[in-house]
Amino acid sequence: MQWWSWLIVVVVVIALIAGGVLAVQARRRRGGVIVDPAGPAKTHRRGGRP
Amino acid sequence: MRTSEINKRPVVTMAGEDVAQIRDVIYSAGGGAVGGFTLSGRGLLAGPMKQALAWTSVAALGADAVMIRDEDALEPTQSVLDASASAGGSGGNVLGSQVLTDSGVDLGTVADVVIEVAGMTGGQCDVVGYEIEASEALGTKGTKLLIPLPDTLAASGEHLMVPASAKDFVAQDLAGFGASIDAFRAQLRETT
What stretch of H or E contains B74? Predict the structure, then answer.
C-alpha cells in the first residue's frame, strides 16, 4: 500500500472515533422532563418506568 | 414557555460565573409544578453533574440564562429528585408518553411541556400544559397541539391522565394558550 493510503485509513479512523465520542456526549447531555422521580435520573428511556 | 427552551440554558451565578447548564426539568409528582433541574457541565466533553438545582434556589429564569446566587445554591442531585418524588414514585421521562383522557381516549404523545413562572423572581413554576403530537381523536393526527392541564395533576408512569374536557380547550400556539388554560381551569372549578 502507498503511504497516502495509510494516511487516508488513519484519518478515517480518527474521524470515526471523534464522531462516536461526540454522539455519546450528545446522548449523555440530552435533556428531558422527569416526572415523579423514583431514583437516579434516567431520562433516555422514553415514557417508561426507570 | 416550553421546557425545550430551557434545556441547555446556562446556569450563571450573580458573580457572573457560568457553572453549569440545564439538562432535565424535574416535575413534582403531586403539584403540577417544576421542582428543579438536573445539570450537565459546560463544554463539549462535560457530562452530567452530580449536583442539581432546586427551583427554590433559582434567583431568576431569564431568556438567556438561569441565575443563581452562588455555587452554594447547587445541591446533590438525589436530594433534589427526592424532594419532587411521591412515596413509591414510578418516575420516567414525560416526553414521548401517551396522554389519555379519564374516559380512556388517546389524545397523542407528549412532544414538550409548557410551564409558566409566576412573577420574575421567587414565584412558583407551574406546569400548565403539554404540547402533544395529536392522535386521530383530535381530528388532526400528527399535528402539534397544546393541551391545558388542571391546577394539580396526577402524573406518573407511562400514561399521563387529563380530564376529558381538556380536548375542548386545545390551542395551536402559545399566543392563545393562556386564555385556553384559564377557561379550562374555570370550567373544572365550576363542575367540582
Answer: strand B74-76
